[in-house]
Design brief:
The complex is a heterodimer of chains A (391) and B (142). Chain A has 13 helices and eleven strands. With 391 residues, chain A is an alpha/beta fold. Chain A has two domains: 143 residues, Thiolase/Chalcone synthase (Peroxisomal Thiolase, Chain A, domain 1, 3-Layer(aba) Sandwich); 225 residues, 3-Layer(aba) Sandwich (Peroxisomal Thiolase, Chain A, domain 1). Chain A starts with a strand and ends with a strand. The chains are: A alpha/beta (391), B mainly beta (142). Chains A and B meet through helix 4, helix 5 and strand 5 of A and strand 4, strand 5 and strand 6 of B. The structure holds zinc ion. Chain A: This is 3-ketoacyl-CoA thiolase.
């Protein structure tokens, strides 16, 4: 297998864009990715494309979305496929694109994700988000996606003494970060009190524990090591990556305070990179609900399950802390356009590693190794990537 | 599209939904609910026998779905109950299942509370009432 580097990345702002459809969003991110390549790249250098999307546009299944989007940016003959694993669609698109380059199938590949959620009525959005769990047995108990994570949160609180206030601190931190990110959907600081007094969604969650519905797209350009120099002197190598899966329904899992899919994915990624979690300088993790970030700390090896609450309490995962987590604002504040999220995380890590965080106040200083973590549904799938700046 | 469960699809699971009929793996003894084609414990693909589950268990975890947050099929229910509790129950026989907690709901739901399955209306779709299991808290037991 060949080593694979990111040579460019682009991302739309995340938010509510009534004037932009799925094609326009993709084209925006694509253009930025192409223009971000230091020595330039002609679009036709791209040899294969993997595009993550759950809804394939406005909550409707649209067949062959990937070639449609590639045709829209003038590349109808680049072999392209849509990848779907709910909220981890972007991460799995990235995984497939890396493998395409690593295996020698192609030298330059595109990984992307796109979602147009805001076109969909909230009733319909609930319908198509509902299908990302085990619909037959979870949803038909009247459970929502937030409800599934709320059940996880209640159990975590019982087993490890996690408090309601501590949960809220995840949202407070990520909003603090998101305020500095010009591409974040919610650029406003909040307090623990804001979270506690928010409209109830699913006990113990209020609306402030939940990531929003968002429009957005992200594009990442990958290249084999032997050709990297043609495009940049500042590549970011993917030094480790892994994926994992589990039963979709919580009821079928032995533990609900840990995601086996994440543990599987991260174990593989660390082993391939030959490093331990201690060597990670910063991470973008999947905080679709506040509890999800707490689970991620444990499952990514940032600390022992139950103990990890300290990371948050002591400010270690804040920008400027020992291990900043979600400096982009995370899904919570940056936004969560389902299929785009995994590639949007890679975009953030790429730019942070190269000192290109745009707004200097949000730049992590001297980081060399970053990690991103993308989860499908409530832990049915997960993808983890470890990145290192070289040169 | 949607989270639509057609009548034929629902009908195929009536044994589970009305009577909590599970499977027992003859190879390793694992009790499986809802039924699956492969045993989660030993991976066997055949030699399962049906078992009737007792319907008794304990609350393993819970949430309360707020009125505004309910899925569309349950919006009517949320409208008249205001909010409704959903629990993950650990059955005596081992499997865990997700279901609603039915009235009377205790003032404070606690993990570990003993519960028992009851057959109730779950929701209506395509003008057909879908029945299935809910759980009620057993008062005064531990
Ligand atoms: Zn077995």
């Amino acid at each position: 297998m060949r080593r694979v580097a990111i040579i460019g990345a682009g991302q739309t702002p995340y938010g509510d864009f009534p004037e932009l459809g799925v094609k326009e969003l993709f084209a925006m991110a694509f253009k930025e990715a192409i223009e971000s390549v230091d020595k330039g790249i002609a679009p036709h250098e791209i040899q294969q494309a993997f595009i993550g999307s759950l809804s394939a546009g406005s909550g409707f299944q649209l067949g062959q979305l990937a070639p449609l989007l590639m045709g829209h940016v003038g590349l109808p003959n680049v072999p392209a496929v849509r990848v779907e694993n709910a909220c981890a669609s972007g991460g799995f698109a990235l995984y497939n694109a890396i493998n395409a380059v690593a295996s020698g199938q192609c030298d330059v590949a595109l990984a992307a994700g796109v979602e147009k959620m805001r076109d969909v009525s909230s009733t319909k959005a609930k319908y198509w988000l509902g299908i990302s769990g085990d619909t037959e047995f979870e949803r038909l108990a009247g459970l929502t996606f937030a409800g599934i994570y709320a059940i996880i949160a209640r159990r975590y609180m019982e087993e490890y003494g996690l408090t309601r206030e501590q949960l809220a601190k995840v949202a407070v931190k990520n909003h603090y970060h998101g305020k500095m990110n010009p591409k974040a959907q919610f650029r406003q600081e909040i307090t623990v009190e804001t979270v506690l007094k928010g409209a109830p969604v699913a006990d113990p969650f209020t609306v402030w524990d939940c990531s929003p519905t968002s429009d957005g797209a992200a594009v990442v350009l990958l290249c084999s090591e032997d050709r990297v120099k043609e495009f940049t002197d500042h590549p970011v190598f993917i030094i480790g990556y892994g994926i994992g899966s589990d039963y979709l329904a919580l009821q079928d899992r032995d533990s609900i305070t840990s995601f086996k899919a994440t543990r599987q994915a991260s174990t593989r990624a660390y082993r391939m990179a030959g490093i331990t979690p201690k060597e990670i300088d910063f991470a973008e993790v999947h905080d679709c609900f506040t509890i999800a970030e707490i689970l991620a700390y444990g499952d990514l090896g940032f600390g022992e399950k139950g103990e990890v609450i300290r990371l948050l309490e002591e400010g270690e995962t804040y920008l400027g802390g020992r291990l900043p987590v979600n400096v982009s604002g995370g899904l919570k504040s940056k936004g969560h356009p389902i299929g785009a999220t995994g590639c949007g995380q890679a975009y953030e890590v790429f730019n942070q590693l190269l000192g290109r965080a745009k707004n200097p106040e949000r730049q992590i200083k001297n980081a060399e190794v970053g990690l991103s973590h993308n989860v499908g549904g409530s832990g049915g799938t997960a993808a983890v990537f470890i990145y290192r700046r070289e040169g | 599209m949607g989270a639509h469960i057609s009548i034929p699809m629902y009908q195929r699971a009536v044994k589970q939904r009305y009577r909590l009929v599970g499977l027992k793996c003859s190879n390793c003894g694992q009790i499986i609910f809802p039924p699956k084609a492969g045993c989660k414990s030993c991976g066997a693909l055949d030699n399962f026998t049906e078992v009737q589950l007792s319907g008794r268990g304990k609350i393993y975890s819970y949430t309360v779905i707020a009125g505004a947050g309910a899925p569309p099929e349950f919006s009517e229910e949320a409208a008249y109950r205001g909010a409704y509790p959903v629990v993950l129950v650990e059955l005596e026989e081992g499997p865990r299942i997700i279901a609603q907690l039915t009235e009377p709901v205790p003032a404070e739901i606690k993990i570990g509370m003993p519960v028992e399955m009851v057959l109730r209306q779950i929701y209506t779709e395509e003008d057909v009432i879908r029945y299935g299991y809910k759980f009620k808290v057993l008062e005064g037991e531990k």
